[in-house]
Input
Amino acid sequence: MKSLSIRVTSMVNLGETNLFTGVSYDVSRENYRDTICRVMRQLLHHILEHSEDDTKSLFSIIKIISDLLHFKGSQKHEFDSRWKSFNLVKKSMENRLHGRKQHIRALLIDRVMLQHELRKLTVEGCEYRSIHQELMRDLLRLSTSTYSQVRSRAQSVLFTALGTYNFCCRDVIPRVLEFLEPDRSDITQQQFKGALYCLLGNHSGVCLANLHDWDCITLTWPAIVRSGLSSAMSLEKPSIVRLFDDLADKVHRQYETIGIDFAIPSECRAVAVQLQTSGVPLPPEPVPSDQEEAEGLRKQEEKNLDSEQKYDKLVGELLDRLNDRNMPWKFEHIAIGFMSLLLRDDHPLPSPAVLFFVKSLNHDSLLVRKVAISAVAGIMKQLKRPHKKVPVSPNKLCGMKELAGLIAGDRPDNQWLQYNSSSLPRTQQDWEGCTFVEKTHWGYYSWPQKLMMYAPSEEQPKQGLTREEMTEREQIIYDHFSDPGFINQLIEFLSLEDRKGKDKFSPRRFCLFKGLFRNFNDAFLPLLKPHMERLVADTHESKQRCVAEITSGLIRGSKHWSYGKVESLWELLCPLIRTALNNITVETYADWGTCIATACESRDPRKLHWLFEMLMESPVNGEGGSFVDACRLYVLQGGLAQQEWRVPELLHRLLQYLEPKLTQVYKNVRERIGSVLTYIFMIDVNLPYTQPTASPRIKEFTERVLLRLKPLTEGDEEIQNHVVEENDVGEQDERTQAIKLLKTVLKWLMASAGRSFSTAVPEQLQLLPLLFKIAPVENDDSYDELKRDAKTCLSLMSQGLLYTEQIPLVLLALKEVHTHTKTGQTHLQPLSPFTAISKEKHFQKHVKSPIVKPLVLTTL
Output
């Protein structure tokens, strides 16, 4: 049988490994597999020509062809079944005491036999020969025949064969695509559908439309799009439409970027030579000579050039199909989807494709516009100019020696990274002299071994290029976004509602505007400014979302702008954001929160001091009602949470501002303040090798809160629902104020349980008696919030991790609660946290405590 492995040229032997079982051929040396193949092919062709409706005979022939192709002493499905059975037996008979050892002898023998069969199935019979070619062509003919059951069985065998023989797909694909040619009028719908199923493949097998090979996809993708013009294609047949949908979906889900440049660094080649010459292990082939290595490098360069040409050819063919006005809309969408997959970071998209995607931003179809937004954002990433970085010594910047060991947290050598209102860069000179560190995590635990920072602005790529200085791709984008008509239409589309009540802040649109302002500086800002001012004044959900996406992209895109341009930008944005916060609604507050959080992510807070100072301006001022106050806090929280440990001054200022407002009457404001407090104290953690935080600390705050809660903690008077109604602004006594304060504190404790990095501190445990005092109280419906929150806090605190030194404090609190309880029902309340504590491994040290025994006995 003739080998067809010459389809792929290689300097490495691609032949199969033949296994010798020790049994010789008979004297005649006849190849029985080849003989059976010739006879069955004659019979198959006769049946297909004279009695194609004899499906039973065709089923038998398909089974025989399957055995001829795949049977090497065992069937794959039988092997899979035995492998599963072996694993079940092994698991049921394993010796868990000794781990994986001590398996019985029969089990080991079974495993060896399975390994031998697996080797036979996978190693032998993978070389594509002429007999395999003939059988696979017959299978393809059966896979596109008249009867669906025959097609289905033949396709199943074909898919298995495609995954068995090396490079056979290159031989099969052109024959499959012949059925999709639009110029052929002799193709039936059954053949058309069969060819589509062959391209689609099965769930676990090879998909011919999505092979990791330029030679294959340069044939299949244009052919799939061209098939929309075929006479056998009908968009009115649901089965065919579904097939194309499945095909496009599978390509998008499984496509992996195919390499263009396969160059191997010289360092890797040197290591490979060392490995071959070391003799451990001894390579089966001799070390390549210098001539062979030079020949390999030449072929590699040829392959790289060939891959690049095929990439450009594929993009060009898809564009040609898209420019065909007779192309049905579905195939236009498929072609655009294929084009979007060809975006890559190591090779720029050809200029005609850039022009197509930019124009498609204003396409009539929503689906096309969405793909174009993602594609143009990716093109912006391709066109991004690299900024020079230089090594920086953090110790020289702070004027300190390098620390001896690992110490996390706020240290003298990372204080210069933190937000300090007295040393903010407010002038051009300060801006240029400031070393900005954008990554939030740098410096908290340790410094990178080689800290690379952006070089001074004079060493960076030129900003504000003229059109003549731009590349062809940049000119295409610049021309369109400088056109007022194009911008008007784009903003009109972006501010349309997509799905009522389900639309959210779009990361794709954010990336689009971020790329625009990063690559082209503020060139398009004059055109966008009136649109932003118009949109922010409109309270409609889609309008507000659009301006929020532009704003976040603008803030992130201005990362490398000069000081003068950044200052002018914030003169525009600050009033804009103030207007947005005043016009905020239930539908838009989440979008503005995402906008600010996205804008502040991985950014140096000193670069954004205009934003933070503006957001800190009286967030809870009552203007617009309690909802607007809660939304302002939510937006501020989103920005500060991204900065984590780098804004202690802002966190102290915010806590100082919020403390007098903890007695808020409105529930939504209380809940939001509780959530904000969680993030204020987020960095206050007690971990080994960690410095005390410079941010606000829970201990000090809790002590101040406990002083204000004294009217509730002192005395045995039952806490009643006598809080003044929300519309009453009159004077209120200390007890009423304490109850409102307690409501806010409970919201904070509940929020902290799920988000905080640490459990309750000792000072918070002093609230336990008060929580037990409230939880069992039965009262009217208006009092349910306080009671429910107290019970929730008790439940969460009882499930948290307790440190060894905290257990005595909890026991004392439980004793105090038990002393003041009067009813049998209340006696049961302390048992929940007590049960949780008893499960702690450190509790055994405290079992003999004089507190434990009386507490348990009295409760019983």
Q: What stands out?
A: Strands lie at 389-391, 452-454. The mean pLDDT is 85. DSSP finds 38 helices and two strands in the chain. Residues 644-800 form one domain.
